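Repro case for the chain-ordering regression, as requested:
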Amino acid sequence: MAAICLCFAIHEPFFLRRYTIFDVNQDSVYEDDDRSCNHVISLAQNCYLPMTELLYKLFKRYEDAFKISFTVSSSAIDLFEQYVPEVLESLKVLGQTGCVEFITETAPHSLAFLYSKDEFVRQVKAQNARLEQVFGQKPTTFRHTELLFNNDVAQSLGQLGLYTVLAEGTREILGWRNTNYVYNSTKDPKVNILLRNGRLSGDLSTRFSQETWDQWPLTAEKFATWCRAIKSADCINIFGDFHVFGLRHPKESGIFKFMEALPGAILDSPGLRFMTPREVVATYEPKDSLDVPNYISWRDEGCDIKGWLGNEMQRDALTTLYNLTSRIHRLGDTDLLHTFERLQTSDYFHFMSTRWFWESRPDRPSPFSSPYDAYISFMNIVEDFTARLTTAEELAQKEAKTTQQQPQTPIEMPGVNFKTCVRRRRVLTPQSQESETQTEESPRERPAKPMPKKTPKGSKKSPQAHKLAASRSKKTK
Amino acid sequence: MQILMLGWEFPPHISGGLGTACFGMTQALAQKGAHVIFVLPKTRRGGDPGFLSLRSASGTTITYDTAQRLEMAGDTLWQDHIRFMPIMSPLTPYLTPEAYTQALHDLRQSSHTTTTTQLLHGSFTYNLEGGYGPNLMEEVYRYSRLAAAIALNEHFDVIHAHDWMTYPAALLAKALTGKPLVCHIHATEYDRSGENINTNVASIERAGLLGADRVVAVSRLTRDLVVQRYGVPREKVTVVYNAVTRPQIEHHYVIPPRLRHEKRVLFLGRVTYQKGPEYFMEAARLVLQKIPHVRFYMAGSGDMLPGLIRRASQLRIGRRFHFAGFLRGEEVNRMFALSDLYVMPSVSEPFGITPLEAMLYDVPVLLSRQSGVSEILHHALKADFWDTRDMADKICAVLQHPALASEIVQNCREEMKTIRWENAAEQLLTVYEDLVGGH
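-- result from build under test --
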C-alpha cells in the first residue's frame, strides 16, 4: 500500500518598480501596483480559478479519497486579498472540505534562514498564525523556500515544534536509499523528512507538455501505471509549483483533463491511495536517518542554492538587507517590519541571477530588463528603506528622552494644558480620518497593508483594482 | 576564394571604426584561407600588413581602352542612379552647415591644382588624397574609375565594398566584370546625420545597396534601417556582427592613485549629434547631485564640442567635467584603463566597436539601447539615450556598488570570448560561397 502525496506551492511576489537613485528619500512606494494587479489577475484567470474549481469538483466526487496539500505564502495571500479575493475564497472553501493540508513556510517565501535565525523563527511563527487565521488549520508540516534544507534547518524546525519537512531527494543525500520512504534527521530524530520523487515530479512539472519527450502525451492511466510499478514504496511524493496548472502547461496541453482523470486512475489501482504529509508521517515509520550537512534545494539542476546566491550582486543585496535585521527587531515598528519582510521575498534575488538570464521562466517573469537592473533597483530601495529606519530610530530616541525627562519637569498648574491639547489634536486628526476612510473604502476584516508607507496614491488604488478584478473575473465566469 | 575588397580606410592610413573593422575582418578571412585584394584610395609606405594584397587606386594607369570601357559602363551608372556631376565641392560626411561654409571658403582660397596626370598614348591617371577631405565627392568619383581599372586587371570571385564611398567603384567593377557584389553597410547616412541627410550620399547609398547581390549589415538595427529607408528586400540583407581584435601584447598601464576615491566615467567618440554627448553631460549633472566626487571625461572632438563646453560652465560642473580632446593610439588605451565606467549614449549607432575595446580593459560599459552592439552584449548595462535619469541611476550604481561592476566585468569577459572576427569571417565566407555558387 503506497501513498501518493501531492504538494503544490502557491507563491506570488509583489513586483518592485524601477526605483532609481532619484527616488531615494523622495518616494517610498517600492511596488508597481498596476503591474502586480494585472499579473495576478491573469494568473487567477488562467491558473488559480479554473484549478481550484476543478479540485473542488474532485473532492466532492471522491469524497475523502482524494487529497492534496498546499503552501500559501503570505505575499500571495496579501496579493489575492488585495486584487483577486475570489482566489482566496476558493482556497478557503477547499480548506473546509477537509481534503487539503496547509503547509507552513517562511512568510514572504524568503531565504532568512541563511542570514538570520531570529528572523527565520519570527517569520515561521507569523506564517503559522496567518494560516490558522485565514484557513483555520494549525500547520504541522514545513516546506522551505525552494525546498532549501540541511541539518540545521531540521534542528530549528524541531525547536519550533514542526516535525515534518519536505525536501529534495538528491543523489548525494540518498546514497543507496530511494525517495519513497519517510526518513528522519540525524540532527533531530523527531523531525521526519519527506523527499521529492524527482522523476515523477519532473514528468508532471516540466516534461508534461514537451512534445519531444518520448512519453508524450502523458495520460492519467500511464502515470498511474508508473506509480504502480514502484515496488518498494511507502509514499510517492510529488511536489511542484501550482503554476504547473494552466501556466507552465497551458490549458491546451490538456493538464486540466489530466488532473481530472488522475484521482480515478490512481484510486482504481490496487495498493495506491492519496495522503497528505501529516497522514503519511502518522501512518509510516521512518526507515532511516538522513545526514544533510550541505544545503540542498530544487529547481536548479545542481540542486543547490546558486540560483539565489550564485553571484556577487545577490550576495551583496542579501547581506545589505539582512544587516538591518537587528535594528528592525530592536525598533519594533510594525510598518517597517512589514516592509522588511516583503523585501526578503526570494524572487527579488532570483531576478538578479545571471546564470538563468537566458532561460527566463515565462510563468514567473522578471519585471526588469536585466539582472543588473533588478540589482540596481533593489539596492536603491534598500537605501531608501535604511534612511527611513534611521529616521524612525532617531524619532524613537527623541521620544525616549522626552519620556525620561518628563518626571523632571515642574508640576504644572491644574487646569487646561494647551500644549498637550494641541499635540493631541495634531496626532489624532490624521489617524481618525484615516480609520474612517479605511472603514468606508474597504469593508474587509483585515485590510491588506501595502508595503510602503500609506500614501494617498496607494490607498486609493487598491479598492479600484479590487473592483476591476471583480468585474474581470465576473466576465470570465 | 579571391575577394576584391574596396575600402576607404585601413590602418594605419586612417583608423576610424571602419578601418579597424576592415583590418580585423580581412585578417580573419586570410586565416580562413581567403585571398583578399584590398583597394584603398592611397597607400603609404609601410602600410602592408602582409596577410593581404594592398592596392593603391591613386596613380593607377587608365589606358585609352579602359577609359573607353569605363565611359560606356560608367556614364549610364552615374546618370541613372546617382544624378551626380563631378564638381568641385567641399561636401563631406561629417560636416554641419557652419563647418561647410568654412570649408567652402578654404576651398575657394586655395588654388585647386588639377590632380589628373596625362600619360602616353591617351593613358592617364588621377592622384587621390584619401581620407575625408573637402573634395570627397570628386575623389569618390575618381576612385570609382581607378578601382574599376584595377578590377579589370585582377582575378577574383567576389567584390566586397565597404560603405558608400566605394559603392560607385563597386557598381562599376560589377558592370565591367560581371562578378557578384557584396555591399557592406557600416553606417548609413541616417545614422550620421539624423534627418538632415546629404541627399547625394543617400542616393549613392541607395544605388549601391539596391545594385548589390547581397547586403551585409553590422546589426539588426542597421538591417531594419536599410530595409525601411532604402527599400532593400529584407531577405537580401545578412547581419554579420563586428568583433574586436585583441592586442598582441597586453599592456598594463600604471593607474595613478585616486585622490579621495574619485571615480572616473568616460565618454569616447566623436562629439557629434550621432554619439549623443549632450545626454552624457545631462546624466553627469544628475550624477553629481548624488555623488559629488566623480570625474567625467569626454574624449574626442566634433562640431558640438564648443557648445558643450559652454553648457558645462552654465551647469557649473566644469570642475568635474573634463574635455580630453581627440585621443589616438596609446592614449585611447590608457584612457580606457583609467576609467571605472565607459558610457556610450549614442542616438543612433549601427554597431559601435568602442565598448568592446573598453571591455578588453575590464571596464564595465553602459550602452544606449539604440546601438547595434547592444544586440550582442547581453551583460552590459543598457539605457535609452533620452532617459538620462535612468542613465544617471545606472552610473551611480556602478560607482557605488563594487559587486555590480565586478559582476558585469566578469560576465562580459566570458561573453567576449564568443565575439571574434573568426565567426564574422565564417559568416562572410558563406555569403560569398552562396553568391559564387549561384552565378
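Ordering looks correct now. Residues 421-448, 453-463 of chain A have pLDDT under 50 and may be disordered.
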